[in-house]
Write a structure and sequence with these properties.
One of its GO terms (biological process) is glutathione catabolic process. The chain has 244 residues and is α+β, with helices and mostly antiparallel strands. It contains 7 helices and 7 strands, in the order ααβαββαββαββαα. Helix 2 packs across helix 4, helix 5 crosses helix 7 and helix 6 runs antiparallel to helix 7.
């Protein structure tokens, strides 16, 4: 990892991606209710440290959706970021599929450890588990991983580390960029998700070569698509007039 570099992807690029209608969730899923979420939270956190630490590497950095107490930089040991989950809902449709960020085995990943504020555990865990896991079919995608912080080695709860029960896409970074540049669905576009993620990392002084390469490629693909779709320039002048 190195110092943050300029971000090419911009709000202007995001605005060029056409919106799309589609399902917010897979209609085949069985959604988790409050009782399910509370039972899942109990199993995940029983005997674990307090306050409960969450390792954020993507959207949880810029939109945690739970009450955060302390926060600190952390490096996930043995994991790296990967846009590997294929989406035909949420930020994608069957016609314009998207990708969701996950953790994949190998390497390391700099992110944030967000402690759930003490006294808010029940509602905060409900909120983060409802948002991240959504349905019974995805409920296995929460686990504890080792994270290196200023305190030394500690464990933190994270989501989608080697995802299970999700449709995966093994794509080159160039193909990932092409997907993200055109993907959109009920929750917005892939480009918007990537832009908010790269900005969230930069604001916290975190650089990931893979994410920076991806945002550069997505910006270039959006620009190229706009050029391809631009109407041809029409010649102007006196053509078609008759002389007297």
């Amino acid at each position: 990892m190195s110092d943050c570099r300029p971000i090419l992807l911009s709000d202007t690029h995001v605005a060029r991606v056409a919106a799309a209608d589609g399902p917010l969730y897979d209609p085949r899923w069985r959604m988790l209710d409050d009782a399910d979420l509370d039972l899942l939270a109990q199993g995940l956190t029983q005997g674990r440290p307090r306050p409960i630490p969450i390792f954020a590497y993507g959207s949880l950095i810029w939109k945690p959706d739970f009450t955060v107490g302390a926060r600190r930089r952390g490096t996930a040991i043995g994991w790296h970021r990967s846009f590997s989950i294929s989406l035909d809902h949420f930020r994608g449709t069957p016609e314009r599929p998207g990708l969701m960020l996950a953790l994949a085995s190998g390497g390391q990943c700099d992110g944030l450890v967000l402690d759930i504020a003490e006294g808010t555990e029940a509602q905060s865990l409900r909120a983060v588990l409802r948002r991240e896991l959504v349905a019974h079919e995805l409920a296995a995608n929460a686990c504890w991983i080792e994270v290196q912080t200023e305190r030394g080695r500690e464990e933190a709860l994270t989501f989608y580390a080697d995802p299970v029960g999700a449709q995966l896409a093994d794509l080159s970074v160039e193909d990932q960029a092409r997907r993200l540049a055109h993907a959109a669905g009920a929750a917005g576009s892939g480009a918007e998700y990537l832009l908010r993620t790269v900005r969230g990392l930069a604001e916290n002084g975190i650089h990931d070569d893979y994410i920076w390469q991806l945002q550069h490629l997505v910006a270039k693909e959006i620009e190229a698509a706009a050029e391809r779709e631009a109407p041809p320039a029409h010649a102007t002048g006196t053509a078609g007039r008759s002389g007297g």
